Amino acid sequence: MVRAGGGVMQRAGLAMAVLVAGGVSAAIDDPIKVPSGQPVTFQEMIWDEPGQGLTYRFRFVAPEIGQAGRGFEDVMGDMEYLCNTYAVPRLAATGPVPNQIVISLSNAPSEFGVADPDITMFFEAYTLQDGTCIWEMF
């Protein structure tokens, strides 16, 4: 599901609209190639305004994270890559430019905002400057 403020839109409907508008013909469950070579698929995009301004959250499933060779430091490059090559091209089709883009990887699909001790999740925040994702230290 994709949530926008108080409204909810079906993931597939928005994802297809974003993919079509962004000129991408891949299905939403197709693997996305990332620098580490791990399998990654798009789960959902959520946007809101949590006090810091408009934030877009692009959530991905990467089943190998948390395993040997797929720790946080090993996938930081994947998150920046996903921000620049997956999230940024879809912003023009999505709406206004956000103050922040958050990229998250989890080892299994999860519900946004619901803690699950069995799911490993990594995330990073970026600002957008001249069409490029700039990493923000939390």
UniProtKB/TrEMBL annotation:
Position of the signal peptide: 1-26
Species assigned in the record: Mesobacterium hydrothermale
Alphabetic keyword roster: Signal
Top-level taxon in the UniProt lineage: Bacteria
Protein's UniProt name: DUF6497 family protein
InterPro entries referenced in this protein's UniProt entry, alphabetically: DUF6497
